[in-house]
Specification:
mainly alpha; two-stranded antiparallel sheet; two-stranded antiparallel ribbon; 4 strands
Length: 476
């Protein structure tokens, strides 16, 4: 295999579980299940199909003769008819009723929907596990004051846990979107060449009700509540867009998380896990590069750009169908899922091993807190008899002086000392330092974490206890 291209999505990033969902085995076994469902439905609706034929089909539902199908495809250049032929070789009694009345999209499109449903379920499972780990992190660090940033400039403090709820809330929105799309997926059913069910109307001697029943019965056999009510030969390609929009949404959230982690790692406040023997740089041995976060960001960029593929496909389908969706779908749908699968494994791995450095966080916060505490200091001085307008101007002037000392002279922030030296404030340095408790400036952040987890996140986790407990395995 070293003499040909191999996708890094399968070699480096995606799990075996997700790879199987998009494997030839999953695809072609699903085709055979659909052919069995079709035959059973047609028999139940009165067509001359025997139980012996159906049992023969079931006996060979799993043991696909790939060699026969591949050889036949070289001759006829048609994948579906090649597999009909191969199945027929194994099932001589049922040979004549395989794919009866159906067009290629009966197996192709219905299988695509089934596979996307399974893939979304796996994405959902991993997404919820990431949410569970983030919830633990948010709860653990809900009381740790930290410098907050707007425009990446120091702003009013928050807590480490409250910041984590912002990442977690994005994933809650993604889960809402995923559940909506997952719940809205329907089968194509047995719609025929142009979506009119003409071949089935012929098979059922003009009985419209049996045509309607066929769709419902096939859907039920394949685990769906219904089929799309109308279609051309294919289900609307907008469905693919809706699915990839969900994946792109998860990618957006993951990318945003990694931006924050990489900036925090630069500040030495929070780091992603770094293994004992991991090499950060080939040249600079001391470096601890945030490579997992960078990989998440890289894969996320790919997924966000991938979403344009089904948009282009859906917008350029002609009338009841064209085939310029086929090659694109074979790439964009599986690779979008494989990439998101890798993203979520990495996300889980990073959150599970995040390292927080409270001392560095406190150092950075205390360097800026005097500026942020000026409103409280001014109020204390007013209570001691000072004039608010005069004090406001003095604090403004002293803040500018302290800022210059920090930026131009590289000194520590000496705003408190400057205020203590000004008799207009009537406050000692000791009085001023009492106002420097960071927890006084984080507002409702700790309570917001508690409320968000209790009211929003924990009900989701409680309802999905059966899928929790995953540990991410990453290849590199």
């Amino acid at each position: 295999m070293n003499d040909r291209y191999v996708s890094p999505l399968s070699e480096r990033y995606a799990s075996k579980e997700m790879q199987y969902i998009f494997s030839p085995d999953m695809k072609f076994k699903t085709w055979r299940k659909l052919w069995i469902a079709l035959a059973e439905t047609e028999k139940e609706l009165g067509l001359p199909i025997t139980e012996e034929q159906i049992e023969e089909l079931k006996a060979h539902a799993e043991d696909i003769n790939y060699d026969v199908a591949k050889e036949r495809e070289r001759v006829v250049r048609h994948d579906v008819m090649s597999h009909v032929y191969a199945y027929g070789q194994q099932c001589p009694k049922a040979k004549g009723i395989i794919h009866l009345g159906a067009t290629s999209c009966y197996v192709g499109d219905n299988t695509d929907i089934i596979i996307m449903r399974e893939a979304l379920r796996l994405v959902r499972k991993k997404l919820i596990n990431v949410m569970a780990e983030l919830a633990k992190f948010a709860d653990e660090w809900k009381n740790q004051p930290t410098l907050a940033f707007t425009h990446f400039q120091p702003a009013q403090p928050t807590t480490v846990g409250k910041r984590a709820t912002l990442w977690l809330h994005d994933l809650c929105l993604d889960l809402e979107d995923l559940d909506y799309v997952l719940g809205s997926l329907k089968l194509l059913g047995s719609k025929g060449t142009t979506g009119t069910q003409a071949s089935f109307l012929e098979l059922f001697d003009g009985d419209h009700e049996k045509c309607r029943k066929a769709d419902a019965m096939i859907a039920e056999k394949m685990g769906f509540s219904q089929c799309y009510p109308v279609s051309g030969q294919t289900y609307s390609r907008k469905v693919d867009t809706r699915v990839l929009n969900v994946l792109a949404g998860i990618a957006q959230s993951a990318h945003k998380f990694t931006n924050d982690i990489r900036l925090l790692q630069h500040l030495k406040e929070v780091e992603e896990p770094f293994e004992k023997n991991q090499i950060g740089s080939s040249a600079m041995a001391y470096k601890r590069n945030p490579m997992r976060s960078e990989r998440i960001a890289s894969l996320s960029n790919y997924v966000m750009s991938d979403v344009i593929n089904p948009m282009l496909v859906a917008s350029t389908q002609w009338f009841e169908r064209t085939l310029d969706d086929s090659a694109n779908k074979r790439l964009s749908i599986p690779e979008g899922f494989l990439a998101v699968d890798g993203i979520l494994d990495l996300y889980l791995n990073v959150v599970d091993g995040l390292v927080v450095y409270p001392k560095v966080i406190e150092k950075h916060l205390m360097a800026e807190l005097p500026f942020m505490a000026t409103e409280n200091i001014m109020m204390d001085a007013v209570k001691a008899g000072g004039d608010r307008q005069e004090l406001h101007e003095k604090i403004r002037t002293l803040s500018m002086e302290a800022g210059r000392n920090v930026k131009e002279k590289g000194q520590e922030n000496n705003l408190l000392e400057l205020i203590a030296a000004d008799p207009a404030f009537g406050l000692s340095l000791e009085d001023l330092k009492k106002s420097m408790d960071p927890s006084r400036y984080v507002g409702r952040a700790p309570r917001q974490v508690d409320e968000f987890l209790a009211e929003v996140v924990n009900p989701i986790l409680d309802a999905n206890r059966d899928v929790l407990g995953m540990k991410a395995e990453i290849n590199v």
